[in-house]
Amino acid sequence: MSTDSTSAASPVAAAGPATLDRIASVRISSVILPLAVPISDAKVLTGRQRPMTEVAMLFAEITTESGHEGVGFGYSKRAGGPGQFAHAKEIAPVLIGEDPSDIAKIWDKLVWAGASVGRSGLSVQAIAAFDIALWDLKAKRAGLPLAKLLGAHRDSVRTYNTSGGFLHAPIEEVLEKSSAAVAAGIGGIKIKVGQPDSAADLARVAAVREHLGAGVPLMVDANQQWDRATARRMCRALDGYDLVWIEEPLDAYDAEGHAMLAATFDTPIATGEMLTSVAEHAELIRLRGADIVQPDAPRIGGITPFLKVMGLADHAGLSLAPHFAMEIHVHLAAAYAREPWVEHFEWLDPLFDEHLEISGGRMHVSDRPGLGVTISEQARAWTVATANIVG
Ligand SMILES: [Mg+2]
């Protein structure tokens, strides 16, 4: 037993009991979030996927013996939600009795519990919800927003809207939503491209650039639907629109192809959202396959692996623009050394009681402890499965 902190009045003694705290229970929930309209990006127009009508959320709520609580979440689109829930339920018992502060150790323990199904993809996406809940819990216990616990470089992050620029929307609607986003204080606008008809893509980009004017940051996202020859032609054609970046011009795993584009054209290349592990990001970064890396914490296994990707990206001198899940990524982007971007989607708003403040082109880190979110009654109503794991 430690004897170096026997005075109840000392800060060390006050911190002591926390290290004796243990995870007492875990609750996981599968929540089906409906979308207002079916969503189509280029993967739908090329026939690879059906329009998206809902997002399958995986929530984890972790409670300790001392009554501390953390909430985390992951997600899947179109397929995978029931698989993520099933894997999370199977490995959750290894959390019970662990010190919730030992997040790195717990991440390893969870991945070893499911080692047979690998260290990427669905298996680590099930771990992500737990990992994010543990970081939320740790920051809440410290009384700090997660960004502050990690060590923030800033208290707000540049933000751009994606949800208004999908391909199911006619151009008039895209223009209207882009104006509304800018009026709401969102700094940039991203639109989807990658249609089989490249001329139609270029017409939409030209229309949005003309509508917004030269001063508004504009990005495009091809969602992996070009081959290398098409990507070269399109990057050349798009170089004149002063885009902040061209996203996923090629297959997500074609790091060499992305590196060729990044080295050839003036417009920065962004990619990484589809990668599902630190190892995959490490390879992308090693090959300089992106000027701007786009990791997604729920997709790569949580905040613990995301911090490793941040380290690699910063060391390589790259920019960061995390994919989706702004409620988590605003904190992580705030802790990145180089001025990043956070992607604005309003889709997850109904799941939480609190909402992020946006003004002046930036998304602000709230002063609430942890992630700063509480699961809403609406999210509870959309819950289709739960599992409670106790010691
Ligand atoms: Mg994208």
UniProtKB/TrEMBL annotation:
<keyword id="KW-0479">Metal-binding</keyword>
<keyword id="KW-0460">Magnesium</keyword>
<dbReference type="InterPro" id="IPR013342">
    <property type="entry name" value="Mandelate_racemase_C"/>
</dbReference>
<protein>
    <submittedName>
        <fullName>Mandelate racemase/muconate lactonizing enzyme family protein</fullName>
    </submittedName>
</protein>
<dbReference type="Pfam" id="PF13378">
    <property type="entry name" value="MR_MLE_C"/>
</dbReference>
<dbReference type="InterPro" id="IPR046945">
    <property type="entry name" value="RHMD-like"/>
</dbReference>
<dbReference type="Pfam" id="PF02746">
    <property type="entry name" value="MR_MLE_N"/>
</dbReference>
<dbReference type="InterPro" id="IPR013341">
    <property type="entry name" value="Mandelate_racemase_N_dom"/>
</dbReference>
<dbReference type="InterPro" id="IPR018110">
    <property type="entry name" value="Mandel_Rmase/mucon_lact_enz_CS"/>
</dbReference>
<dbReference type="InterPro" id="IPR029017">
    <property type="entry name" value="Enolase-like_N"/>
</dbReference>
<dbReference type="InterPro" id="IPR029065">
    <property type="entry name" value="Enolase_C-like"/>
</dbReference>
<feature type="domain" description="Mandelate racemase/muconate lactonizing enzyme C-terminal">
    <location>
        <begin position="171"/>
        <end position="268"/>
    </location>
</feature>
<dbReference type="InterPro" id="IPR036849">
    <property type="entry name" value="Enolase-like_C_sf"/>
</dbReference>
<dbReference type="InterPro" id="IPR033978">
    <property type="entry name" value="L-talarate_dehydratase"/>
</dbReference>
